[in-house]
Design brief:
Layout (H helix, E strand, L loop, with lengths): L7 H9 L5 H8 L7 H21 L11 H8 L6 H22 L6 H8 L5 H10 L12 H27 L4 E9 L2 E7 L9 E5 L5 E5 L1 H61 L6 E3 L4 E6 L12 E5 L5 E5 L6 H16 L8 E5 L3 E5 L12 H15 L4 E5 L8 H18 L2 E6 L2 H8 L4 E9 L4 E7 L8 H7 L4 H13 L3 H80 L2 H13 L9 H5 L7 E4 L5 E8 L2 E6 L2 E6 L3 E3 L24 E3 L5 H17 L4 E5 L6 H12 L3 E6 L9 E6 L2
Helix pairs in contact: 1-2, 2-9, 3-9, 4-9, 5-7, 5-9, 7-9, 8-9, 12-13, 16-17, 19-20
Length: 765
């Protein structure tokens, strides 16, 4: 199939550039539309899952992948690999494990991707063995073998001896040396001395400088040390070769599985490159349908700049079998044709479609005749090239085929071209093909209007600017606009009038009827656009009103809350003033006035139910029954100290300031005897009690109930969270626990248990 006119290859190149390694790129570049329903469904499901994962979790980590096919084939043949080969194998195994790790983080059900990833073989043991021998730079590590470690230790020791001998030599023969330079020649340590003194030290001369002024000398006392080092270096190399041979055997054992992994990784790489491209282009995965209908909502051509591209919706729904796109040359018809064709071919290559929503049917083949394929070598004119393709279509197209035809019938005499185009469309309609064709011929427009299975549409042209708008209009035929364009270019009006007269003379009744229908259709389209515009304005106004309503409701709640706060503040102020007046009257012994004010205060709801004149006059003393203002708990005073009192609250000793308590006639409730037995444990008992933010007097009743529940549920250990703060709450909790006979012991939490902000309690079994 020749897809050059559709520009599929350009898209493939874009996607290939997003691949992680060469094998993935090869998969993309060799892509061809696949017409097998089974394969198409599988690829469609795969790209749908890959796109969803890419959008939510970012792309699959594939950056460490490389094509190691050659070295794996060498390993299979028993060849010894190089250290860098082993590094490549290690990186491949790491990348494979990274893919598996990525998939474990995916929460959604992705059956197709899971099947691919599940086929990967993970070589954890082999990876560890290879990583023991080589670092990422390909260097052999000391731990590769005990022998290598021993050899390298000996080499380090000899290097130390050489350093000592070198220092001794430099001190003794400083006058003969050149800048105290020590270097190596053929892995042997030598010194740089004056040529005149080169024979003064015994040993060997390894060479001289180009000027002849200096010589590289291995003194006699260096020879033995160098010999020992050379021997160790040979041993080291032999041991490295043994290690490489041993590791090559490891790779040989996993080579075939690694080759299989490579193939799977290439498939995943290509798949996620497609998904990456789809995410970047804001594309969707088309739904595959069996009803031979094409639906592309707000689709666009991916090769046109996003800033300038025009989105269009294309619908070829039953019973339509032919979409005929009309309009002048260079009017944008071909862009629409390519857009539809590219969407189909992308789907058949498992690539997302640049549309908001897409439905593509199953085809057995796509026939394409787009562009000018005239050839000097083949002696083909434009018309002949078109005919060659049309002959192929007429012979091979079936009812399950899609046919894309650009400028049908062009390239020859207009009348003959129109007749041939109509005949071709009749033949394709008889076959049951789905056809998308472009034309600027008037007879084809009329032909299309006469048949219910042909949808005649157009691409709008801006006559004022003389440019196509690329807006696809369904159901309207396009005009050539030749006379309007001629006027814009200031062609003599008399010539234009004459041309219009000649055109009108050639009109048939059918042409006149079609023009009237088209004019009516244009008016209907304009009316539709106005209605849509008004609808958009109304929708905007409705949204604004909704927003205003929401703002009003929010402000309403705020205003009510504000009013409540102001009322409470005012009420508190009145209460305080009334209290001051009462106190003043008590001091003046003005009982009558005092009772009058008290009555007013009671009417205002400022007097507590238990409040009495006598109680206001009382001082707090030991034995008094009081009520804690905030929690309304009843307790007895056991000690008084200036502004603070000590209370007995249900057997628990707590301290409180005087302003937080008041006298009361209420009695301390006696604990009720409960004779019924609980037969079920408390559901969902929590292993911790959080008291943070509570005062001591508020927290202790909660703690007491929690400890009762803990005992009932036979808890062995619980945790009380009290925070640090001033330490008062922690102290009160510990005092309570100390008094509880069922508490075996308690301690502050460990760092992972809340530290000093929590207490861990062990209960009696």
């Amino acid at each position: 199939m020749n897809t050059a006119g559709i520009e599929l290859e350009v898209i493939k190149n874009q996607i290939a550039s997003l691949c992680a390694f060469s094998l993935g790129q090869e998969k993309i570049l060799s892509l061809e539309p696949n017409f097998s329903p089974l394969i198409l469904k599988r690829e469609n499901a795969r790209i749908k899952e890959a796109l969803a994962c890419t959008i939510k979790y970012s792309s699959m980590p594939l950056s460490g992948l490389k094509d190691i096919t050659l070295l794996l084939e060498q390993a299979k043949k028993g060849m010894t690999l190089t250290p860098l080969d082993f590094v490549a194998v290690i990186q491949h195994i790491r990348a494979t494990r990274g893919i598996v790790s990525y998939m474990t983080s995916v929460e959604e059900k992705v059956e197709e991707l899971s099947d691919l990833v599940d086929s990967l073989v993970i070589f954890k043991k082999q990876q560890e063995e290879l990583e023991t021998c080589f670092n990422d730079a390909g260097e052999i590590l000391d731990g590769a073998s005990p022998e290598l470690r021993a050899i390298r230790r000996s080499l380090l020791k000899i290097d130390g001896e050489i350093q000592i001998e070198t220092n001794r030599f430099m001190q003794k023969h400083a006058a003969s040396m050149i800048d105290n330079i020590v270097t190596t020649r053929n892995n042997r340590v030598v010194v740089l001395v004056k040529s005149s003194d080169k024979n003064s030290f015994g040993g060997f001369i390894h060479g001289e400088s180009a000027s002849g002024q200096t010589a590289y000398v291995e003194p006699s006392n260096f020879v033995e040390i160098n010999n020992r080092k050379q021997s160790l270096l040979y041993q080291e190399q032999e041991e490295i070769e043994k290690i490489c041979w041993k590791c090559s055997e490891i790779v040989e054992g996993i080579a075939q599985d690694c080759l299989n992994n490579l193939e799977t990784c290439a498939v995943l790489d290509a798949l996620f490159a497609k998904a990456h491209w789809g995410k970047k282009e804001d594309a969707c995965v088309a739904e595959l349908t069996t009803d031979k209908s094409i639906y592309l909502k707000n689709t666009r051509h991916p090769l046109i700049d996003r800033k300038h591209v025009v989105e269009n919706t294309y619908r070829i729904l039953d019973p339509i079998r032919v979409l005929l796109i009309t309009g002048p040359n260079t009017g944008g018809k071909t862009v629409s044709l390519k857009c539809i064709g590219l969407a189909v071919l992308l789907t058949y290559c498992g690539i997302p479609v640049c549309a908001e929503e897409a439905m593509i049917p199953f085809f057995d083949h796509v026939f394409i005749d787009i562009g000018d394929d005239q050839s000097v070598l083949q002696s083909l004119s434009t018309f002949s090239a078109h005919l060659s393709k049309l002959a192929d279509v007429s012979q091979n197209a079936t009812s399950d085929s899609l046919v894309l035809l650009d400028e049908l019938g062009s390239g020859t005499d207009p009348k003959e071209g129109e007749s041939l185009a109509i005949a071709i469309l009749n033949d394709l309609r008889d076959k049951g093909c789905l056809v998308v064709a472009t034309t600027h011929y008037g007879r084809l427009k009329a032909y299309g209007k006469r048949h219910d299975d042909i949808l005649v549409s157009s691409v709008q042209f801006d006559v004022e600017k003389l440019i196509p708008t690329y807006h696809f209009v369904e159901g309207l035929t396009g005009q050539s606009n030749a006379f309007d364009i001629a006027r814009r270019y200031n062609l003599k009006e008399s010539i234009i009038k004459s041309a219009e007269f000649l055109k009108n003379q050639q009109k048939t009744e059918e042409d006149i009827l079609i023009e009237k229908l088209e004019k009516q259709a244009v008016e209907n389209q304009q009316l539709k656009e106005k209605l849509l515009e008004q609808q958009a304005i109304q929708s905007k106004m409705f949204k604004e009103l909704q927003n205003e309503k929401e703002v009003f409701e929010r402000n309403k709640e705020k205003n009510i809350e504000k009013a409540k706060q102001e009322a409470e503040t005012y009420l508190q102020m009145v209460k305080e003033e009334a209290q001051e007046i009462l106190s003043e009257m008590r001091q003046k012994q003005d009982t009558n006035k005092y009772h009058e004010v008290l009555e007013v205060k009671n009417k205002l709801g400022l007097l507590d139910e238990e409040e009495e004149i006598e109680e206001e006059e009382k001082e707090f003393k030991v034995g008094d029954t009081i009520e804690i203002k905030q929690s309304h708990q009843i307790a007895k005073i056991v000690a008084v100290n200036k502004n603070q009192v000590t209370l007995n609250l249900n057997g628990i000793t707590v301290k409180s300031s005087k302003d937080k308590i008041k006298h009361t006639h209420k009695q301390i409730a006696k604990p009720k005897k409960v004779f019924s037995m609980r037969t079920e444990k408390i559901q969902s008992f929590k292993l911790e009690c959080n008291l943070i933010g509570l005062r001591v007097e508020e927290a202790l009743p909660i703690l007491q109930k929690y400890m009762d529940d803990a005992k009932f549920n036979h808890m062995a250990t619980v945790r009380i969270i009290h925070g640090d703060g001033t330490g008062a709450l922690r102290k009160a909790v510990h005092e309570y626990l100390k008094s509880d006979r069922d508490v075996v012991n308690y301690r502050l939490g460990a760092p992972n248990e809340g530290s000093t902000g929590a207490t861990v309690v062990t209960l009696r079994g």
